[in-house]
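Give me the fold.
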Amino acid sequence: MTTQTDPPAAPAPLWLQGREAVIAAAAPDEWRDEVPGYHLSHTVMPDQRTTQHQAGSLEAIVESIVQVFEMEVSHKADPSTWVSMVSERFRTRVNGGAWAGSAEIVERGSYNILIGDSVFYGQGDTFESSHEVFHTAFPQGFYWEVLEVLSPPPTVAFKWRHWGSFEGEYKGFQPNGRQIEMFGMSVAKVSDELKLLEVEHFYDPNAFLGQMTGGCPVAH
């Protein structure tokens, strides 16, 4: 006698399997420098986050996709290797400003695009130096979480929180060890496969950066 069983479920697409799966699947020559590690995200972040999302929930999926996206634009130099988006169509902007495509992200750097023209930041940093600025200011990590998802695909609106402990110098300003937070909202359009097509961010970069400069735009 034989019994009928359901066929095993197909595995989720790579970009929906999480940051660690995407890192493991990448070829060695895809990285700008060394393979990125996220040890602090596993050891420090869980105790500092304010939300806990059930596995498989829309909030958990959105958070994972954005984590993969951030990892790829920060550590992979060739947009054709970015699995989190449709790179030839992808574009992003902040607070209704100019759109930037994947090629511009590679050239200018995601921090320069996402922060823009703030008097507390400036525009003299390269891709590499902009990342070093924030790695120096937040040596124990600069974390990000989804707070709430307001609408489902294909247009996903969500609120988020970004935070870290200000323990290193920021552009001449000395650290005070305090936790720096910023809050914002994003609207992402995704494909049928849940790959990113465009993302708009809405937040106040001056309110964030002013916490590290005492509200003064002139470095000491």
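The first strand starts at residue 91 and ends at 94.
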